Amino acid sequence: MSQPKPPALLFIISGPAGCGKTTLCDRMLEETPMLKRVVTSTTRPPREGETDKVDYYFFEESTFRKKVAAGDFYEYAEVHSRFYGTLKSEIDHKLADGVDLLLNIDVQGAAAFRKCAAEEPRLRDRVITIFLMPPDHGELERRLRGRGSDPEPDILLRLKTAKEEMAQYGDYDYCLVSGDRESDFKRLQAIYTAERMRVRSETKTV
Fold this sequence. Notes:
Layout: E1 10-14, H1 21-31, E2 35-37, E3 41-42, E4 57-58, H2 61-69, E5 73-79, E6 82-87, H3 88-96, E7 100-104, H4 107-119, E8 127-133, H5 137-147, H6 152-166, E9 174-177, H7 181-197
Parallel strand pairs: 1-7, 1-8, 2-7, 3-4, 8-9
Antiparallel strand pairs: 3-6, 5-6
């Protein structure tokens, strides 16, 4: 008997600033050919070297607001007077084409996707959320200060925000306590492999 093709999945990774999630996501995308990055949207101007529809979808604020009113986003937020969001079309078309997706997003965005996954059939049982947890608050502070790029008020704000974010790890499917980069990568790979093999309701046969 032939086995049905498993559905494409959306992997969401969150974690405090400085925990290493961007580096981890970049390596996962580089070494996992079946997994593609979700291109998010923003109203901030492109930085040097950034390309529209590759790094972000860059929109004027008026265009972004129209898309919000039209219900085109799964989630969006205003951060430092700029808007950021995830287009439904960016997710839906790729999942329909059988492409697994990886999205690096904050805890509010992840919560919005969990809500959508519970309500919308096209996302149901396809969203896997992973929280990358620093080993402890002291190590997170060491990593933030080690970057050498943030002024002291920004570091203190990031640490305060991190404490609030870390309290929400229980809302996620997985909590990956960060160690070194190699072990973090291997454990994330293991989660990906296990979820690809998991039998889901739409592939079960009577």
